[in-house]
Write a structure and sequence with these properties.
With 125 residues, the protein is of the alpha/beta class. The chain starts with 7 loop residues before the first strand and ends with a helix. It has one domain (8-124): Sandwich (Hypothetical Protein Aq_1857, Chain: A). The chain is built from 3 helices and 9 strands, in the order βαββββαββββα.
Length: 125
Amino acid sequence: MASKFKVLSLTDAAADRIKAIIADADQPIAGVRVGVKNGGCAGMSYTMEYADGQKPGEDKVEDRGVTVFVDPKALLFLLGTQMDFQTNKLSSQFVFNNPNQTSACGCGESVAITPVNPEAVHAGA
């Protein structure tokens, strides 16, 4: 039975940027891998890297024609997150609209994220 919870979704802008990254890569890649790591003044930061395939335990998200692999350690932190790509006069960056994020540092480099309760996820599935 499929879960009704969506791990991650993408906006059109994020999908278009990932497609461009894949097209410009020096080697064949299957998609991008997202996760979280400890660090920064708020406690955690988002990570992204090229992915040549799915690793054991990862969730595979296919949305808007691209593939995103979610690190299993990040799953409960990213559940329900929308990935966007925004450009303004001074920067272009991926932005994670995460319902589990409780705060962010002033510089925008790190966030505080409360993981989803696994029992609540299984009860709603």
